[in-house]
Amino acid sequence: MAEKSTWVIGEFQPSMTEWLASIGEEKESAAFRLEDNQKAERLENLFQAIGLPWEGAVELPARELADMSPRFVALLAERGDELCALRLVPVRPEFPKLRNRGLPLRQVYETWFLKQDINPDDYRAFIMPHADDYFWSMIIVSTTEGIFGEVVKGQHAQLTHGDTNQVVYRFRYDFTNWQWSEEPDAHAKTTIVDAVERLHVVDQTKRARLAKEMQSEFAHDYLLGYFEALLWLNNKLYFSDYNRILYKRIPMPPPFAHVKGAITGVVAYKGVVQGTARVVSAENLSAEFNAGDILVTDNTDIRFVPLMRKAGAIVTDRGGMLSHASIVARELKVPCIVGAKVATQKIKTGDRVEVDAEKGIVKIL
């Protein structure tokens, strides 16, 4: 079951767990599910250990919500009109995680929680604050080779789901020098530099504590992992994810090169492929598509998985190198260029094209 959200564009962009399950990576999917279910505890541990800011959560057994316990009644009285995110995390990993965000607590309780067909004893409830919009949304990947990621103005789903409607600034930091895909907004730049510095743990005792308690790893004294972060409109920075698995599956990009070409984008998975283009949308997924064809589309979602499996390469107008679909393309080992902006305008079904996912260029032959 996909996570539910009131503000995510569309309903076919599930969690990374469901994406992996959709391509048959059941073992990896189970590991990701467990990691994701425990992220609130990890973020709280990082807050306690190194002061890493996060939104914070009120944790209650879901049974207390179902039975209107005194604690939950008091919480409703205090924060019932505030926007929130309500996550129901299963106590058994085989159960689905459920989530709804963007509504006042009282409303999400009455119109969503009470309608869930679950046994409340099987879930823990995490109630977190929510904002309708943000200054900046970020993904930061910290690896042994360096730190890289993306930042975009507005909602975070633009990065994870590829629903980009703002400029995506990409960055890399090799522990010495910073590089950007294009000159960023000055506010975005200072926000990213500040967020990355929060992962710099110079105290050896603190690093040893995190290594022991959470099996955290470090390079150049930076905490390694996949991180999501948000700068709220009140200028407060909050981290919303710390994943110890995902970062190992995302390679550090090479230094950014400003290539010239009619159709250019960001490399999600390398390779050079020639083939027949098929311009596909969610409305014509059943159109003819042969093994080795080049999938050209605005943005992929989980409905495109059968085509992604067959494709010789993938080219999308929108999205970034860290979206769920980009990560799945890497898992499938299909050359992929994202953020090509005009691919669906310039390329027509039947065109013979070359996808150079080494340089990020698509040529019509």
How is this structure best described in words?
This protein has 365 residues and is of the alpha+beta class. It has twelve helices and 20 strands. The chain has helices spanning 16-22, 26-37, 39-50, 62-66, 70-79, 105-111, 157-160, 186-197, 204-214, 305-310, 324-332, 343-346, and strands at residues 58-61, 83-90, 98-104, 123-129, 134-142, 147-153, 168-173, 178-180, 218-219, 222-223, 225-232, 237-243, 263-264, 266-269, 272-279, 294-297, 313-316, 336-338, 352-356, 361-364. The strands form four sheets. An eight-stranded mixed sheet has the order 13-20-19-15-16-17-18-14. A six-stranded antiparallel sheet has the order 8-7-6-5-11-12. Strand 5 and strand 6 (147-153) form a beta hairpin. Helix 1 (16-22) packs antiparallel against helix 2 and helix 3 (39-50) runs antiparallel to helix 9. Mean pLDDT is 89; it is low at 1-10.
Give a quick rundown of the structure:
The protein has helices at 16-22, 26-37, 39-50, 62-66, 70-79, 105-111, 157-160, 186-197, 204-214, 305-310, 324-332, 343-346, and strands spanning 58-61, 83-90, 98-104, 123-129, 134-142, 147-153, 168-173, 178-180, 218-219, 222-223, 225-232, 237-243, 263-264, 266-269, 272-279, 294-297, 313-316, 336-338, 352-356, 361-364. With 365 residues, it is α+β, with helices and mostly antiparallel strands.
- Which of globular, elongated, flat, extended, rod-shaped describes the shape? globular
Structural class: alpha+beta
Report the count of strand segments.
Answer: 20
What summary fits the major beta sheet? 8 strands, mixed
* Residue windows where pLDDT falls under 50 for at least 5 positions: 1-10
Could you tell me the radius of gyration in angstroms? Answer: 21 Å
Q: State the end-to-end distance.
A: 42 Å
The share of residues in extended strands comes to 25-35%
Whole-number mean pLDDT: 89
- Report the total helices: 12
**Strand order of the main beta sheet, please?**
13-20-19-15-16-17-18-14
Please bin the fraction of helical residues. Answer: 25-40%
